[in-house]
Each structure stands twice: as structure tokens, then as C-alpha cells.
Write a structure and sequence with these properties.
Elements lengths: L7 H9 L18 E8 L3 H12 L8 E4 L4 E3 L4 H5 L9 E3 L9 E3 L3 E5 L4 E4 L4 E9 L4 E3 L6 H6 L5 E2 L10 H7 L3 E7 L9 H15 L13 E7 L8 H13 L3 E3 L3 E6 L2 E5 L7 E4 L2 E3 L3 E3 L2 H4 L25 E3 L12 H19 L12 E8 L2 E8 L3 E2 L2 H6 L8 H17 L15
Parallel strand pairs: 1-2, 1-8, 2-5, 8-19, 10-17, 11-12, 11-17, 12-13
Antiparallel strand pairs: 3-4, 6-7, 7-8, 9-18, 14-15, 15-16, 20-21, 21-22
Helix pairs in contact: 2-9
Bound molecules: flavin-adenine dinucleotide and ubiquinone-1.
GO molecular function: FAD binding; sulfide:quinone oxidoreductase activity
Protein name: FAD/NAD(P)-binding domain-containing protein
GO biological process, one term: sulfide oxidation, using sulfide:quinone oxidoreductase
Length: 448
């Protein structure tokens, strides 16, 4: 059942929340000279592919009533790129041709959206075509910008430079060979200040590399200073992780395993084998020599969103945190990394948001108020070594909201083997067999 997540309490919370006084565009007149659809979805990533199929399954749409726009040739299972970095999967097995994912009843435009005209209900593609809509869903993800760190694009492209990143398709295959090649000196793993996809991933790859070097006899957590390799975690943040419960567990690991913490260190430049860090706390820049560097680049909302009338001051699509409806334009919705929801940006979050957008949008088309509420659910399966995962699950607050803690009374801050197999095998499988078809609701299980 698609909407079994909706509790009575949630329905009543939705009814009582303030309803903005915007015009209802559901009956907007078609824009002449354009292709028109009842629903247009911007982005065919985790959010777009899931939501478009859930809408189709409602049975309320005919062929080509729903259109999806995405310029990419491939859809990627990005959460698997950490596993590629750890030598556990290949990047090719984690991608699918974008076109192959869409039901033939969905109209697919293999192009990018350039601009929005929310007052007139159309978007313009990069080829100049206008696509009109009654309802618009905006899910173009985050842009990863290696060029925002001086010297990073060149270092990633240079086969001889010991600099790699799990964060782009072009660089991810360099990570595991770099871990294997490293035999002595300083290894630094970075996380930028600011919003990124999956805030735990920069340290997941560190924990895997640490385990690899430990097994290879190059790192002894009980005697870090006597080890061939010295490991630092340089993060723009003041803590290991933003949720207190999981931060406590991860800080304990960092201390027990002898990882040198460089808090409030935000990588801004790579110069040869030197990494230069700005200090968000206002201190002087710091330069560190490295023999191995894993970088999480800076990320942000895509420029075409930032520069549009649908963005908030920070550049994200300005939606209500609970209903996911745009705060100004009642026929615009957003899910995923590009939305303004103040939660950690993950595919797990998108999976929880999708049924909320779908129900609220269908209600809006019938002139009803949105009554489904997103509670901020997100999750970060933190690989802490080969064979173990700490399954952080939390909601707005941030407060833990643990699926297996609830069912089995276990503490998910403890790394477990069963969670490792969820992360490595089950999630990639369920994503491509069910989630992309709109049939998987994460902790709520299968839909239909
Ligand atoms: P995306 O899936 O990124 O899709 C956005 C789509 O929009 C893309 O297909 C893109 O081509 C398209 N697009 C961009 N610009 C335009 C335009 N102008 N017009 C039309 N379309 C456009 N999540 C987890 O849940 N668990 C994890 O363990 C995890 N680990 C991660 C590790 C790494 C290294 C990375 C990179 C990500 C990880 N994530 C994880 C995060 C997860 O991949 C994202 O949060 C999720 O994919 C967001 O979905 P989305 O639909 O918002 O964006
Ligand atoms: C999930 O459904 C999912 O996608 C298939 C993930 O991978 C991207 C996840 O990391 C998580 C946590 C979920 C949520 C599902 C459960 C059963 C906790």
C-alpha cells in the first residue's frame, strides 16, 4: 500500500500547518507553442526516477501525461561509489543507461532544463524548447565542483598524483589502486565545510583504507606513531558527524584507532604534495604534506536552480520541510539533494520523500490540501571496516530514528556485520530491482 506510512497524527499535523496563500495552478491553461504535460519531473536521478514511476502507478495518468527531463546518458547508483573506492565493486556495474529505466508511458526528454518560468508554468530546455506543465517536480541533485579547490582537477586527472575521490564517476576508479599503492607517509582524507552528498562518505572510505593498511601490516591502530602510515581526517566541520549519538561512536573509533583529527580544516588548494586548508574558525591557513590524499570536493545546488525564481537564499528549491511543496508556487514540488529540506542529503532521504511528494501532488491535482508529512528521515550506512557498518538513521532534529533499533531493540551505533551486507548487497539490489520502478519505500518496505 503506497500510503501506509501516513499516520493519523501526521494527517492531523498536515491539516493544521499553515497553508500559504498561493494560486492553485492545477488547472493552468496550456502554454501555446510548447509540449505540455500534466506533470514534468526535472532530473531522472534517485528522486526523479522513483517519483515518476510512483505517479504512474497511481493509475491517474495516461501515456505521456508525465515527462522526465534529464541530460545524462547514465543513471548511477552513487551510494555504491564508496564500495568501488574500497575495491568491492566496479563503477560500471553500478550504472544503467538512463533511457532504459523509464516505463514507455513516461515521456523522456534527454536534455537539460536551462530556465524556469514558474508564473507561466513552463521550463525551457537547453535546446530552446519550452515544456509546459500543470505540476512540476524539481530533483536535479547537487553539483560536485572539483574546480572549487585549486589544483584538484589536475591532481585527479594526473595518473601519477596520489590524489583521488569517490565523489565523481571519472575519479572513483583511481581510489582503490591509490590505497593499494600507498606504503608509507601521510594519508589525509578530507571533508569540506558546507553541504555535501552523504556526509558520512568521506570517512567511510577512510575506515576502509585504514582497515586495508592494517591488514597489509602498514598501520597499527595501537601504535600509530610507530606505523609506516600516518592517517589524518581533515574536515571543515568541528565534529566527526552531525548527529550527537553517532558522533560519539565515531569519535570513539577515531580515538581508539589513532586517527589524527584535523577539525575545522577546509581544503582549498593542492600544490604538489601539499594540501592547504582554510580554517572556518578564523585561524591562519594550514599546509600539510601528504603522500596520499582522498578528497571530497565542494558541492552545491546546480547553477540553473541557484539563479532561478524557485530558489531560496542558499540556492536550494524553497519547499516546506514537511509537505515538500514550494513555498511560493503551489504547483512546484521538490525532493532530493536540491531541495531546501534541512536534512542530510542521501538516497535514503529521497526514498522517504518520494511517497510524500506523490500523495501531496495527487491531492493538489484534485484541489485538496497536502496531508502527507516528511519527518526528515535520512540514513548513512557508515562502513567502519571491511565487514562492518554502523547504520545511522535519523530525522529532523537531528534525532535518531532507527528501523532495526525499533524492531529488534538493538543499538545501531554499534557497527554490525548484518548492516554491512545490507549496504554492500541488499541496497544496490533493491535499488535497481524495485526502487527505480517506484516499488521500494526504504524502512517501510515494498510498495504494492
Ligand atoms: P541525483 O541522484 O544526483 O540525480 C540528479 C539528476 O538530475 C541527475 O541524473 C542529473 O543528470 C540530473 N540533472 C542535473 N542537472 C539537470 C538539469 N539542468 N536538467 C535536468 N536534469 C538535470 N546516499 C545514501 O542513501 N546512502 C549512501 O550510502 C550514500 N553514499 C554516497 C556516496 C557517494 C560517494 C555519493 C556521491 C553519494 C552518496 N549518497 C548516498 C547520496 C545519494 O547518491 C544522493 O543523495 C541521491 O542520489 C540524491 O538523489 P537526487 O535525485 O536528488 O539527485
Ligand atoms: C534504503 O532503502 C536504501 O536504498 C535502497 C539505501 O541505499 C541507498 C540506504 O542506505 C538505506 C538506509 C535505505 C533504507 C532502508 C532500510 C531498510 C533501513
Amino acid at each position: 500500500m503506497l500510503y501506509r506510512h501516513l499516520t493519523t497524527a501526521a494527517r492531523s499535523a498536515a491539516r493544521t500547518q499553515a497553508v500559504p496563500s498561493f494560486r492553485n495552478f492545477a488547472t493552468a491553461a496550456p502554454v501555446s507553442g510548447t509540449r505540455n504535460h500534466k506533470v514534468v519531473v526535472v532530473g531522472g536521478g534517485s528522486g526523479g526516477v522513483n517519483i515518476s514511476h510512483q505517479l504512474l502507478q497511481s493509475g491517474k495518468f495516461a501515456a505521456e501525461d508525465i515527462a522526465v527531463i534529464d541530460p545524462a546518458e547514465f543513471h548511477h547508483y552513487q551510494p555504491g561509489w564508496t564500495l568501488v573506492g574500497g575495491g568491492l565493486k566496479t563503477k560500471e556495474e553500478l550504472r544503467r543507461p538512463m533511457k532504459s529505466l523509464f516505463d514507455p508511458k513516461l515521456k523522456f526528454y534527454n536534455d537539460s532544463v536551462a530556465t524556469f518560468a514558474p508564473e507561466s508554468n513552463f521550463v525551457t530546455l537547453s535546446n530552446g524548447d519550452k515544456i509546459g506543465y500543470d505540476q512540476l517536480i524539481v530533483a536535479p541533485g547537487l553539483t560536485v565542483s572539483p574546480a572549487n579547490i585549486k589544483g584538484l582537477p589536475e591532481a585527479l586527472a594526473n595518473r601519477d598524483a596520489p590524489v583521488s575521490s569517490i565523489y565523481t564517476y571519472d575519479s572513483v576508479q583511481k581510489v582503490f589502486p591509490s590505497i593499494q599503492k600507498m606504503d608509507k607517509g601521510n594519508a589525509i582524507f578530507t571533508q569540506p565545510a558546507g553541504v555535501i552528498k552523504c556526509a558520512g562518505a568521506p570517512q567511510k572510505i577512510m575506515w576502509l583504507a585504514l582497515d586495508y593498511w592494517k591488514r597489509a601490516g602498514l598501520y597499527n591502530p595501537s601504535n600509530p606513531s610507530g606505523s609506516a602510515i600516518n592517517i589524518s581526517f581533515a574536515t571543515g566541520l568541528p565534529v566527526m558527524f552531525g548527529v550527537p549519538k553517532y558522533n560519539a561512536a565515531l569519535t570513539k573509533l577515531q580515538q581508539e584507532r589513532g586517527v589524527n583529527p584535523l577539525f575545522q580544516h577546509d581544503l582549498i588548494e593542492i600544490n604538489g604534495n601539499n594540501a592547504i586548508f582554510a580554517r572556518p574558525d578564523g585561524a591562519e591557513t594550514v599546509t600539510k604534506h601528504f603522500d596520499f590524499l582522498h578528497v571530497a570536493p565542494k558541492m552545491g545546488s546546480p547553477a540553473f536552480i541557484k539563479n532561478s525564481p524557485i530558489a531560496n537564499e542558499a540556492g536550494f528549491v524553497k519547499v516546506d520541510d514537511a509537505t515538500l511543496r514550494h513555498k511560493k508556487f503551489a504547483n512546484i514540488w521538490s525532493a532530493g539533494d536540491a531541495s531546501s529540506c534541512p536534512t542530510s542529503k542521501t538516497a535514503a532521504a529521497v526514498i522517504a520523500q518520494s511517497p510524500i511528494v506523490v500523495r501531496n501532488l495527487l491531492n493538489a491535482m484534485e484541489g485538496k490540501q497536502p496531508d502527507a508529512v516528511y519527518d526528515g528521515y535520512t540514513s548513512c550506512p557508515l562502513l567502519t571496516e571491511y565487514g562492518k557498518v554502523l547504520l545511522a538513521e535519523f530525522k529532523y532534529g537531528p534525532e535518531p530514528k532507527e528501523t532495526f533499533g525499533n524492531w529488534f531493540g538493538i543499538d545501531q551505533a554499534e557497527p554490525r556485520r548484518s548492516f554491512y551486507y545490507l549496504k554492500k548487497d541488499f541496497f544496490p539490489w533493491v535499488y535497481y530491482t524495485h526502487m527505480v520502478k517506484g516499488n521500494w519505500a526504504g524502512p517501510k518496505g515494498w510498495i504494492n
